[in-house]
Amino acid sequence: MKRMLSALTALVTVAAGLTVGAPAAQAAGSCSGTITYSQVQSSGLGELVIYYNSSNGGTNSACFYHRGAAYGRSAPTFVQIYRCAERSGEGAHCTRSGGADTNSGDFSYYAGPVAVTGTANYCVEAVGYIGWAGERHQIYSRRQGC
């Protein structure tokens, strides 16, 4: 009986650690690589950044960071990235090729990272926003990294 109680206590402790894990108001991980695109939203509340590294046939990742008055304040935040069918035409709209990776929630510092692989010689597009004072402050990258 004593062993079963000890095992049950250990199981509950492990489960509690998994539940607590990363803070609920922040996405796990961080974006890294060479910055290929960065734009601060006109309100100054957010910044969309796209990164590239050569792993997995080319990997692009994106994060949407809180800036200005939004930095450190929990707010609805969203970021998404996808590979384009196009291989050129930076700055134009993108035709999606394959799935998208998305991260959203009430975050205090950033949403992401989100990533797509197999992007060598292809354009990517990302979108991000922060909800602030009842408004959506959004950035579309259009085609990048071509």
The largest beta-sheet arranges its strands as: 1-2-3-6
As a percent range, the share of strand residues is over 45%
- Continuous helix count: 1
Low-confidence stretches: 1-29
Distance between the termini: 65 Å
Short description:
The protein is mainly beta and 146 residues long.
Would you give an account of this structure?
- The protein is mainly beta and 146 residues long.
- The protein has one domain: Immunoglobulin-like, CATH 2.60.40.
- It contains one helix and eight strands, in the order αββββββββ.
- Strands 1-2-3-6 form a four-stranded antiparallel beta sheet, with no helix packed on it. A four-stranded antiparallel beta sheet has the order 5-4-7-8, with no helix packed on it.
- Strand 7 and strand 8 form a beta hairpin.
- The protein is elongated, with a radius of gyration of 19 Å.
- The N terminus is likely disordered.
Keyword list:
Spore-associated protein A; mainly beta; 1 helix; 146 residues; Immunoglobulin-like; four-stranded antiparallel β-sheet; signal
